[in-house]
């Protein structure tokens, strides 16, 4: 159903679509393990918002972001100076600009143990949550026999580690990193969307404001509201989304693509074609 979009590009994809109403689904290799990369931020966001709702976390609590926290990248991850930011605003930055440092700090605030136990609590049998971005990078540093994350940054910037060497590290291996399956991810989106209204509304808002990604929305029909969370590493392009149709239908879609060439733009367009093909096939 979707291989025709990816095979000419030297890519391979797994995907799943689920109706958020009745739970019916349709997929291709939907039970194969995939790496989450920044898609893990959806799990962190949902657990944070749940704890806020239950009075376990004060959303206005100020968190100090220091040089020791910064990983580089967007949002607080690339700040030059120390700052104090509410944990709520960190969650927003984590979801809207894919801020890795914000993800670390929010995960620390809710408790890594709580995050790791989330999949089992909501019945996701194919999902394993190890930790936030820093935990994953620390594993990569160990795999490459690098002393710490600062040294890892220098190694990566220098180009002394090849892409193939990186792809042999734990971050690229579903058996050793944050991982799930397309079917689990659409099930989790259904859990989020059909959960307590205040939690669902805030997660929906954060996903609707995502400034990076948009891989599944490029060919979405006019009038369809799209809410997404993307993730990527060299060799992987991932995105999960909810499409809300004008007629009231709501579909959760997950597409994960493994890339072998320097053609990520074409692969991302193929991901949107795959999402559209799944919705067309589901409606037949």
Automatic annotation (TrEMBL):
Q: List the SUPFAM superfamilies.
A: beta-lactamase/transpeptidase-like
- Record domain Beta-lactamase class A catalytic: where: 15-256
* GO term, biological process aspect, one: beta-lactam antibiotic catabolic process
Give the superkingdom in one word.
Bacteria
Source organism per entry reads Glycomyces harbinensis
Q: What's the protein here called? A: Beta-lactamase class A
Gene Ontology MF, one: beta-lactamase activity
């Amino acid at each position: 159903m979707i291989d025709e979009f990816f095979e000419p590009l030297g890519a391979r994809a797994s995907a799943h679509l689920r109706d958020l109403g009745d739970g019916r689904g349709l997929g291709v290799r939907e039970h194969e393990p995939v790496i989450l990369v920044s898609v893990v931020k959806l799990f962190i966001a949902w657990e944070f918002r749940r704890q806020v709702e239950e009075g376990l976390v004060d959303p206005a609590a100020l968190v100090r972001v220091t040089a020791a926290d910064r990983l580089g990248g967007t949002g607080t991850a690339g700040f030059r100076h120390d700052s104090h930011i509410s944990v709520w605003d960190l969650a927003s930055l984590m979801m809207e600009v894919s801020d890795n440092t914000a993800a670390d700090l929010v995960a620390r605030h809710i408790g890594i143990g709580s995050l790791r136990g989330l999949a089992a609590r909501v019945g996701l049998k194919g999902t394993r949550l190890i930790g936030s971005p820093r935990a994953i990078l620390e594993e990569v540093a160990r795999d490459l026999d690098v002393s710490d994350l600062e040294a890892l940054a220098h190694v990566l910037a220098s180009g002394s580690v090849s892409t193939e060497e990186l792809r042999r590290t734990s971050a690229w291996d579903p058996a050793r990193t944050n991982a799930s399956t397309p079917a689990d991810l659409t099930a989790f989106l259904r859990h989020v969307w059909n959960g307590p209204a205040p939690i669902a509304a805030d997660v929906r808002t954060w996903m609707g404001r995502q400034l990076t990604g948009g891989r599944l929305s490029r060919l979405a029909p006019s009038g369809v509201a799209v809410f997404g969370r993307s993730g990527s590493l060299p060799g992987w392009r991932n995105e999960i989304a909810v499409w809300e149709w004008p007629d009231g239908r709501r579909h959760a879609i997950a597409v994960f693509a493994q890339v072998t060439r320097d053609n990520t733009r074409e692969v991302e367009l193929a991901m949107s074609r795959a999402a559209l093909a799944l919705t067309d096939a589901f409606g037949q």
